[in-house]
Specification:
By secondary structure, this protein is mostly helical. The protein is built from 5 helices and no strands. Residues 1-33 are annotated as: Disordered.
């Protein structure tokens, strides 16, 4: 097999591996709820719950809706 053909095969393999890794990173449900993280924010992150609320202001509503759907 020629060197050019071997190079093409290697490039095709890399493309397959790359596309497979991109598709395998689909959305995954969070392992911890924001409520639990907020409750332990001082111990985990060294911040008050109010600071935690500010950091997650935009995500809180969406996450609470997901928690309600699971119930």
């Amino acid at each position: 097999m020629s060197a050019a053909k071997q190079q093409q095969n290697k490039q095709a393999e890399v493309k397959k591996e790359t596309s497979a890794s991109v598709t395998s990173t689909a959305y995954k449900e969070p392992e911890f709820s924001l409520t639990e993280l907020r409750k332990h924010s001082r111990k985990l992150f060294g911040v008050k719950p109010e600071v935690f609320d500010g950091a997650f202001f935009n995500t809180k509503k969406t996450h609470q809706q997901n928690e309600k759907r699971r119930s």
